[in-house]
Amino acid sequence: MISIILPTYNNEKTIFDSINSILNQNYCNFELIIINDFSTDKTKQIIKSFNDNRIIYLENKKNIGSTKSILRGIDKAKGDYIARMDGDDISLPERLEIQLNYLILNPNIDLVASNIILFTSNKVIGNSKLELFNSNNINFYMRTLGLPHMTWMTKAEFFKNFKYNTYFKVAQDQDLLLRANNFCKFALLKDPLLFVRIPEKKNVKYKLKQIYNLLLARISYLNNMKLFYYYPLILISFIRSAFYYIFSSKSIDYEINTNLNSKYQDILDKVTKN
């Protein structure tokens, strides 16, 4: 069985499509653990409108943030595999089936992620062209690891051995990946399996907080590995990232492919219509 961990906060405009995309998966042996992080809108009512015994609903008594909400969901999970998703994402119907089969056929892999399809206002922007770098590649230290958090599927043992650090409110996935990197093997699927919603307007404050947390995670990793000579490269890289985001007209920092937009637009239209 697969346990899908879905934290949500004030996602009344998007949560229905997110839940629906999981309930309509080709693979049906799962539990969907939804953690409502003290939403103040109609998120709870929308979740409760679903009548499906595969949904496990948890509600925080106060807002505790996504990291602690995910941890609460993991503690409740009973599956042999754990998948991640957010309250504004949409999974392709074959997502769970493809990732589960990959982990079964590749028992040496502990975590598998995928590329993503970026969209806003129900219009596809393009699909990501991410790369997975190992520690022998300089990009491993200068860029984020190419494993989008919301696309993860892992063996359940992964989260028994590695816990999210609750200090990180954002970029908690990058911190965890860096700590697990020397002990686990990761994989990135070329084909995208999730629609990920991009904000229509840039949130500079959030992005700078994310960049800062990424920097802290990298520094912690370098300290533990005693790789102090990488400090200048990392500092230059993250300063460049901050300036690029602030002054660029783009609200995303992914390299994207637009050749398949019409294909993915048709899929998105179909999924959001149900």
Structural write-up:
This protein is an alpha/beta fold and 274 residues long. It contains ten helices and ten strands. Strand 6 (111-120) and strand 7 (123-128) form a beta hairpin. It starts with a strand and ends with a helix. 34% of the residues are buried.
Describe what is shown at a glance:
The chain has 274 residues and is of the alpha/beta class. It has 10 helices and 10 strands.
Any idea of the CATH topology?
Spore Coat Polysaccharide Biosynthesis Protein SpsA, Chain A
Poorly predicted runs of 5 or more residues: none
Give the proportion of residues in helices.
Answer: 25-40%
Structural class: alpha/beta
Protein traits:
274 residues, alpha/beta, 10-stranded mixed β-sheet, 10 strands, globular
Compile the SSE list and pairings:
Blueprint: E1 2-8, H1 15-23, E2 30-36, H2 43-48, E3 55-59, H3 66-76, E4 81-84, E5 90-91, H4 95-105, E6 111-120, E7 123-128, H5 139-142, E8 153-155, H6 156-161, H7 172-180, E9 186-197, H8 204-225, H9 231-247, E10 256-257, H10 261-273
Parallel strand pairs: 1-2, 1-4, 2-3, 6-9
Antiparallel strand pairs: 4-8, 5-9, 6-7, 6-8, 7-10
Helix pairs in contact: 7-8, 8-9
